[in-house]
Amino acid sequence: VQLVESGGGLVQPGGSLRLSCAASGFTFSSYSMSWYRQAPGKERELVARVNGDGGTTVYADTVKGRFTISRDNAKNTVYLQMNNLKPEDTAVYYCNAWGWVALRPDNNWGQGTQVTVSS
Could you give the C-alpha distances from 103 to 88, 95, 100, 106, 116, in angstroms and in order? Predict the structure, then answer.
C-alpha cells in the first residue's frame, strides 16, 4: 500500500489549498479514505472522511463549511479542498486508508504534507 500526499504549502489566512492523495497497492474503492492532521504539540485528529463510493462524508466541526473531501475512484485519488484557511489549520496533514483484508482491519498512512497558514 502506498499513499502519497501533495498540495501542501504556505498560504495566507483566508486563502485556499487543495491536497491530493494518490493511492496504490490496494482496491481503492473498497477503502474508506480520510484526512487527519497533527499540529505541533497536539494529537493527530480526524479532519474529514469519505466512504468507498464517495456518498458519505464526515467532517470535524472545526472545518465544516470550509473543507470538502472528495474522491475519484477512477484515479485512485482522494482530495481535500480547503477554503477560508485559518492559522489554526496549520499542521501536517496525513492521508489515511482504512479497509478490511482477509477479515482483518487494514490501516494505512501517508507520509504527510505540511500546511502553514500565516501572513
Answer: 38, 22, 6, 9, 39
3-state secondary structure the chain: CEEEEECCEEECCCCCEEEEEEEECCCHHHCEEEEEEECCCCCCEEEEEECCCCCCEEECCCCCCCEEEEEECCCCEEEEEECCCCHHHCEEEEEEEEEEECCEEEEEECCCEEEEECC
User: What is the β-pairing status of strands 91-101 and 77-82?
Assistant: unpaired
Contact by Cβ (8 Å): 21, 113? no
The amino acid sitting at 10 is L
Other CB atoms within a 10 A radius of the CB of residue 67 amount to 22
Tens-digit pLDDT profile for residues 48-87 = 999 999 999 999 999 999 999 999 999 999 999 999 999 9
Q: What pLDDT, on a 0 to 100 scale, did the predictor assign at position 101?
A: 87
Cβ pair 93, 36 in contact under 8 A:
yes
Neighbouring CB atoms inside 10 A of 38's CB total 14
